Amino acid sequence: MCGILAIIGALTNGDRDEHNLRALIVDMAKEIRHRGPDWSGVYVSHFENYTSILAHERLAIVDPVGGAQPLTSSNQKIALSTNAEIYNHEKLKQELAETHPFKLKTGSDCEIIVHMFESGKSGVDLARSLDGPHAYVMINSETGIVLAGRDHMGIMPMYWGYRRKDNAVVFCSEMKGLHTLCDEFWIFEPGSITQFKVGSGPDGVRAGMKRYYNPIWWDLSFLPSNPADLSKIRNTLEMAVNKRLMADVPFGVLLSGGLDSSLIASLAVREMDKRIKQGIQHKNAFIALEKLHSFTIGMAHPETGEVTSPDILCAREVAKFIGTVHHEFNYTIQEGIDAIPHVIKSLETYDITTIRAGIPMYLLARRIKAMGIKMILSGEGADEVFGGYLYFHKAPNPSEFHQETVRKVQGLHYYDVQRANKAMAAAGVEVRVPFLDKQFLDVAMMLDPKEKMINESTQNIEKYVLRKAFDDSKNPFLPESVLWRQKEQFSDGVGYQWIDLLKEHANSMISDSDMTGVEAEFAYNTPRSKEGLYYRRIFNSVFPGKHAALTLPANIASTVACSTPKAIEWDEAFKQSQDPSGLSVIDVHAKRRKLNNGN
Questions:
Q1: Buried b (16+ CB within 10 A) or exposed e, 278-303
Q2: Is the bond preceding 434 in cis, omega lying within 30 degrees of 0?
Q3: Helix (H, G, I), strand (E, B) or coil at 224
Q4: To 10 degrees, what angle do helices 333-347 and 497-509 make?
Q5: Separation CA 501–CA 531 (nearest Å)
Q6: Torsions phi, psi of 41, nearest 5?
Q7: What is the pLDDT of residue 492?
Q8: Residues 6 or more apart from 231 whose CB is under 8 A from it?
Q9: 68 in helix, strand or coil?
Q10: At CA 385, angle to CA 480 and CA 438, rounded to 5?
Q11: Residues 377 and 272: beta-carbon distance below 8 Å
Q12: Between 280 and which of 275, 291, 563, 596 could a Cys-Cys bridge form, CB atoms 3.0 to 4.6 Å apart?
């Protein structure tokens, strides 16, 4: 996890202009230093009458000693500022060396990107060859060519904008690093690259923009038909977890006690145990393979102080079963309320569900960082891929079910991925999400949706095929009670009273008269509740103007239990009660809880 900031093609006149521009970029880079508190770097490029500056705030995960950025070519003419994890970097180095010999300057997994660009590899081919989340800006000072790109799912955030005063374009990991620099700014779309010439301005960026990630299942008109191969599902997820253990620093795993994070934790423990048994020594003398540390958070009862959080209770059971060194933390409603403004600034959103879940995750991130952990594994993405949210019980047919999973996956960078990345980054912790591995997506998203659909008559509950893939009675991955536990959204699972108390607080802050003028106050994505208006006003105070609001898609308030607006058509009750909480699908939630209790 790092922070990148780059200004490209600024018209400057003399040393004073360049000095002032550098001072401005160095100062603005402080806004994203939480993403990379370990080191800061700057590279200045000149091409014709233009000055470009790449800044980097580093969180050192791989090669902590020698991997400082911006990374450069041997002649210093090409420079790269990136926030990336390139899991196949060793393979890429071997392949490139066969045709274009090069000399590595660092042990960084990202340096290969520089040499691939130097070898003449096209932007699209380069992006497609990278296995791992990434966002980067790279410049060739001799040719004036710039290449910028973002990973397939938008796991790593990136924005770009335009400054009229000097015709420059700006790229940044987070909105807070460029919103005061630019007259206009936008999200850099996931799965895309742009290649353009210094000085060509925003028109050059748009003209050079190409989508490189286009799997066949991305098209809503395509209906997959692959039968469920349970061993393939299991093996591909195992590989996705194993490659994400690439780190030269202490790491751990988020453990909510739900299916997704519990599976990731179990797989990570098994891989670490295997490496220990094989006598594998870590190359970094500062880190030794040991028991995995797991972390969870829940809210104590506001009156009794008793731990009633479903997540806390289930996580304890999982940790004991798989053998992690487990750490659990509680927070009070007041601590959660106190964090709201900073969480909204950190997450750069006004989406209700993202904020509800982001608060405990942000609080947990601070605890994790205080214990010396710099990288964490997490279970985001499984609910979108497998249709795990409770409203999927109402899907009318396989086609509708599959299309909704595609829509949910396509929008992840606005919601859960953004929440996980930025909540952890706010404390200087990197989060990795194995369920969004490219190879795993190609397996899971190509399944016949009939394999994923909920069928109460056969007791095929949500994410049945994923659960079944890891249902091993001889060598169990998880306790039965967790493997077949009903879905709880993170904002619900930390404690059922959490959402009710947040609503109560928002109701105390927003009056009925405030709601009467809400459409005039916010014409785009008009808040429908006092809670929504409360968050929106905080967001607007930090990120004023229309461009910040437009970084979220339209109609975000049209949702039931995290559905897209389209899925509201599935059930008449959805149209009457639109709330992002999983508990809003109360008939499904109550029915499953009754079955689980044996009543």
A1: eeeeeeeeeeeeeebbbbbbbbbeee
A2: no
A3: coil
A4: 80
A5: 11
A6: -140, 150
A7: 47
A8: 469
A9: coil
A10: 110
A11: no
A12: 275
**CB 560, CB 583: distance < 8 Å:** no
> Which residue type is seen at 536?
R
Specify the amino acid at residue 351: D
CB 57 within 8 A of CB 29: yes
- Say how far apart CA 562 and CA 580 lie, in whole Å: 5
What does the block give as tokens for 495? 């404690």
Eight-class DSSP state of 246: -
Count Cβ atoms below 10 Å from residue 48 Cβ, excluding itself. 11
Closest CA to 125 of 115, 135, 117: 117
Q: Name the nearest CA neighbour of 342 among 328, 361, 329.
A: 361
Residues, the chain = 599
Number of other residues whose CB lies within 10 A of the CB of residue 103:
8
Question: How far does CA 35 lie from the centroid of its chain?
Answer: 13
562 classed as catalytic: no
Contact 293, 232 (CB under 8 A): no
**Cα 517 to Cα 511: distance, rounded to the nearest angstrom:** 11
- How is residue 463 annotated by DSSP? T
Q: Where are the alpha helices (DSSP H) in 119-192?
A: 123-129
pLDDT along the chain (599 residues), means of 10: 95 88 96 96 96 96 89 96 97 96 94 96 96 98 98 98 95 97 97 98 97 98 97 98 93 94 97 84 55 90 72 91 95 95 98 95 97 96 95 94 98 97 98 98 98 84 96 96 73 66 96 95 96 98 96 88 87 73 56 44
Amino acid residing at 165:
K
430-432 and 375-377 strand pairing: parallel
E-state strands within 411-467 = 430-432
116 bridge partner residues: none
- The alpha carbon dihedral of 38, 39, 40, 43 has a sign of negative
What are the start-end ranges of the H helices in 430-550? Answer: 438-444, 464-469, 480-483, 490-493, 497-509, 512-516, 518-521, 530-542, 546-549
Alpha helices (H) in 278-332, listed in sequence order? 310-322
Dihedral angle at the C-alpha atoms of 432, 438, 442, 445, nearest 10 degrees?
40
Sign of CA dihedral 542, 548, 549, 554: negative
Candidates 2, 172, 182, 314; catalytic one: 2
- The answer, as to whether pTM is greater than 0.85, is yes
What's the angle, vertex CA 254, arms to CA 250 and CA 258, rounded to 5?
Answer: 155
